[in-house]
Amino acid sequence: MFRISSVGKHTYRFYILGQNSLVGNIAKCESIRRQSTSADNLANYPYKSLIVSSPKKHVFHVEINRPEKLNAFNKVLWREMGECFAQLGEDSLCRAVVLSGQGKLFTAGIDLTDLTELGSVVTSDDDIAKKCRTLFKTITHYQNSLSSLEECPKPVIAAVHGACIGAGIDLISAADVRYCTSDAWFQIKEVELGLAADVGTLQRFPKTIGSSSVARELCFTARKFLSDEAVKIGFISRVFPDKAGLVKSALELAETIAKKSPVAMQTTKETLNYSRDHTVEEGLKFIAGRNMAFLQSADLMKAAMAMMNKESAEFSDY
Ligand SMILES: CCC/C=C/C=C/C(=O)SCCNC(=O)CCNC(=O)[C@H](O)C(C)(C)COP(=O)(O)OP(=O)(O)OC[C@H]1O[C@@H](n2cnc3c(N)ncnc32)[C@H](O)[C@@H]1OP(=O)(O)O
User: Fold this and answer.
1) Does residue 219 have its Cβ closer than 6 Å to ligand 1?
2) A Pfam family for this UniProt protein (predicted)?
3) Alpha carbon of 109 to ligand 1 centroid (Å)
4) What does each of the 318 residues of the chain score in pLDDT, given as a tens digit?
5) Residue nearest atom 31 in ligand 1 by C-alpha distance
6) N or C of the chain: less Cβ packing under 10 Å?
7) Closest Cα partner for 4 from 24, 21, 29, 25?
């Protein structure tokens, strides 16, 4: 029998446990040093509405796990989504993330029971100032939850099957790459429920697809659009016949990303995000500031040497 304890980053001690006592008869073995693997720290992701796994080296797979309610966003899921992506952003073992949904479809948007609860704030006897503060806090909390995908420095690939409705569009608009199955359909449904989308779609979706006219038509009408149209307008980059093929290809893309320099990858994502919202001149200044530091990273030399020797480089966790 063994007990393993962590005594520092990447450093573990292995103990042999005695037959009669777990403490007194411990014989200390040599302290060994090894590289942590993604599987080691999955216990750090103990979520109720999300399943987190690491099917490939440095690749994490996050699955929305409320299949009985079609992965609708209830309070727990809003909170856990934000926490999970903040944690993945800090986890040096993670270099790329795939996000998919369990069950029949990707997500049916906000949980309608929770939305009704939010409506009860409006009808309460509280003073209007208090009601406004409560609603502002909730909307901001939901916004932060979905923005965590964009703020996570590791590339996030959304793999959509079945359907992606309302808050689901807000969610995947904050991802870096979107794949779907051929049967997938999409709907910016908020106006149909009497509200303006407020957690990211109106800010990100038009910039993602490039056409203001198409974006406005889809936001104004709440018309469903299918996978072929989603590809045509540039919202989705690849379509797959079924979910198994979709997830497999999304994980392969994540693996390709994870094999490259994490310093280069994270700086690329950060710069693309910054440049989307700034002028070319500001974007150029931004990357000059970043790269005056990061060109000194060991990753650059490792990648150059590996390329010259026609080998693949191994990069340190970052
Ligand atoms: C501050 C707010 C910020 C956020 C705003 C976000 C806004 C939005 O997301 S707007 C979009 C809201 N979503 C919807 O309007 C979709 C509602 N669902 C459906 O239209 C259908 O369920 C759907 C077409 C997706 C699938 O239909 P199907 O016949 O295949 O399944 P159902 O029998 O309807 O559903 C199965 C069980 O799932 C429950 N469910 C489905 N959607 C939701 C939801 N959004 N919230 C809560 N629960 C949902 C449904 O009730 C069934 O449960 P049960 O009766 O217990 O079997």
Assistant:
1) no
2) ECH_1
3) 7
4) 333 333 333 333 333 333 333 333 333 333 333 445 666 678 889 999 999 999 999 999 999 999 999 999 999 999 999 999 999 999 999 999 999 999 999 999 999 999 998 888 989 999 999 999 999 999 999 999 999 999 999 999 999 999 999 999 999 999 999 999 999 999 999 999 999 999 999 999 999 999 999 999 999 999 999 999 999 999 999 999 999 999 999 999 999 999 999 999 999 999 999 999 999 999 999 999 999 999 999 999 999 999 999 999 999 999
5) 70
6) N
7) 29
Does ligand 1 have an atom closer than 6 angstroms to the CB of 175?
Answer: no
The ligand 1 atom at the shortest distance from the C-alpha of residue 69 is 38
Q: Is 72 in the pocket of ligand 1 (CB under 6 A)?
A: yes
Domain 45-258 fold is: 2-enoyl-CoA Hydratase; Chain A, domain 1 (3.90.226)
CATH code of the region 260-318: 1.10.12.10
Cα distances (angstroms) measured from residue 125 to each of 14, 136, 264 = 60, 17, 54
Q: Where are the domains of the chain?
A: 1-43, 45-258, 260-318
The tokens 């994502």 sit on which residue? 269
Asked if the interface predicted TM-score (ipTM) of this complex is over 0.90, the answer is yes
* Per-residue exposure over 263-297, b if at least 16 CB sit within 10 Å of its own CB, e if not: bbbbbbbebeeeeeeeeeeebeebbeebeeebeeb
- Our mutation pick for probing the ligand 1 site, out of 64, 65, 69, counting the most ligand atoms within 8 A of Cβ, is 69
The residue written with tokens 């909730």 in the block is 138
